Amino acid sequence: MTETPSSGVATELADFVAERTTDEIPDEALRLAERAILDTVGVTLAGADAEAGTTAVAAMGDSRGETTVLGRDEQLSLSDAVFANATAGHALDFDDVALAAMDGHPSVPMVAPLLAVGQRNGASGRELLTAYVAGFEVQGYLSKPISPGHYEGGWHATSTIGLFGATAAVARLLALSPDRTEHALNIAASMPAGLKRNFGTTTKPIHAGQAARSATTAALLASEGATADSTAIDGDRGFFDLYRGDSPPDKERLPDLGSRWALLEDGIDVKKYPCCYYTHAAIYAATEIAETNDIRADAIDDIVVTASQGAADALAHDDPRTGLEAKFSMPYLIASAIVRRGVGLSAFEADRIEEPAVQAVRERVTLSVDEDLPYDSNTAHVAVTDRTGDVYERTQERPPGTHDDPLSNDELQEKFRMCAEYAPRPVAIDDAITALDNLRSVEDVRSVIESL
Question: Cα–Cα 20 to 30 A to 397, which of 3, 158, 233, 403?
Answer without folding.
Answer: 158
